[in-house]
Amino acid sequence: MTSRPLNVLFLCTHNSARSILAEALLNDLGRGRFRAYSAGSSPRPNQQPHPLALAVLREAGIATDGLRSKSWDEFAGPDAPEMDLIITVCDNAAGEVCPVWPGHPATAHWGYADPSAGDEPGEVKHEAFRRTMQLMKRRLEMLTQLPPEKLARALLQDSARALAGS
Predict the structure, then answer these.
(1) Beta bridge partners of 12
(2) What's the chain's Rg over C-alpha atoms?
(3) Which residues of the chain have pLDDT under 50?
(4) How large a percentage of the chain has pLDDT more than 90?
(5) pTM value?
(6) Answer CATH for 6-165 from 1.20.1250.20, 1.10.940.10, 3.40.50.620, 3.40.50.2300
(7) Using CB atoms within 10 A of its CB, is residue 144 exposed (0-12), middle (13-18) or buried (19+)?
(8) How confident is the model at residue 92, as a pLDDT?
(9) DSSP annotation string for 121-148
(10) Residue limits of the Phosphotyrosine protein phosphatase I domain (predicted)?
(11) Which of 19, 35, 152, 164 can pair with 10 through a Cys bridge, CB separation 3.0 to 4.6 Å?
(12) How far apart are CA 71 and CA 15, in angstroms?
């Protein structure tokens, strides 16, 4: 692993819930070893992070400043930070044709159910967001605890894909 943080991009369709949760969690857990970003393949016009995603993050004491929904196009250009790892967190984004990422980063798919789906009452939906955040946190803790040799460019894809079953 280099001396710079490992750049990780989380992708989902709209970049309002799961990818936002993953970005904030990894930036909190990464302790300078990781720098997380998130984006969507097709965020809606004027898309904002889901209020319940922001609420459960704040409840967990995780900073939400600067979180915003954005297109993955921001990360495919020559001026974008070079990603080391790209993780899709929803099945729709995993099945889409992605841009060609600068630097040819490692990729993995960690599928999570959409906590914003359905018409459940507020507390049920709130609990779905909490549960999704906890599942992500457990997997991201494992990622951040990997030894440096497992995060080396040659092994990063295998390491990240192995965590998909965790």
Answers:
(1) 40
(2) 15
(3) 1
(4) 62
(5) 0.90
(6) 3.40.50.2300
(7) middle
(8) 67
(9) -HHHHHHHHHHHHHHHHHHHHHHHTS-G
(10) 6-146
(11) 19
(12) 8
